[in-house]
Amino acid sequence: MTDATKLDGSIALVTGASGDIGSAVASLLEKRGATVIRSDLRQTSDTGSGFLVHDVTSEGSWKAVLSQIDGDHGRLDILVNNAGVAPMGRIDSMSLEDWRRCQAVNVEGMFLGLKVAADLLSKSGADRLGGSAVINLCSGASDRPSAFSAAYCTSKAAARMLTRVAAIEFAVLKKPIRVNSVHPGVVESAMMDKILETYSEITGGTPVETLRAGVAGGNPMGRFVTPPEVAEAVAFLASSAARYIHGDAIHVDGGYAAS
């Protein structure tokens, strides 16, 4: 009996691969047998040789990346739309530029990925059990609001709806592409460290460790999520073990969304 969670022979693209979650996802997909193309605005020491410079807000950049993948591999079985930003700020003082940048990366980048990659994903999915797989990294912020994060919460709520619409539309068009989302809770990451620091500044100097303890204490399981735990959910949805899961959301948040 074969293990349906294996990804042997699959070609995967992970955007935002220089970050903590993207790096963990790419590494796990490789361990499961996939060939992974990592992409980001800039390369870091641990992104490896299969790296492409990629601005997810640019349709031209998406076309260049997909053309490279098609030329090198002739297929794309897994697309992980992970690139994201999380600007913090008060609604009455956040710049329109920061607001628009957040929507451009978190929503438009995901839209462009679905648009530009659809044909290659569809071609590849025709001979793959369960079809090809798109996994969009959303957030618990798509379900529950948080002060000083209007741009981020709004973008992730839009990303969740985009996931659902794409899933239904691809099904109507009979494209063999499954589209799902993963919703991490508060993740141990450099991004979260920056968010807590900014939150501290906005609230007049609340100690970061006090904020960290409060956030962890508000989670039913009492701690932050780790990037490898998020990666496990992504890898499952990418595999044929999830071949009948479509348009759905997996929360990796220790029960926060349910509380």
From TrEMBL:
Name of the molecule in the record: Short-chain dehydrogenase
Pfam families, sorted: adh_short_C2
Classification via InterPro entries: NAD(P)-bd_dom_sf, Sc_DH/Rdtase_CS, SDR_fam
Domain of life of the organism encoding this protein: Bacteria
UniProt similarity note: Belongs to the short-chain dehydrogenases/reductases (SDR) family.
Molecular-function GO term, any one: oxidoreductase activity
Organism: Novosphingobium malaysiense
CDD domains: SDR_c
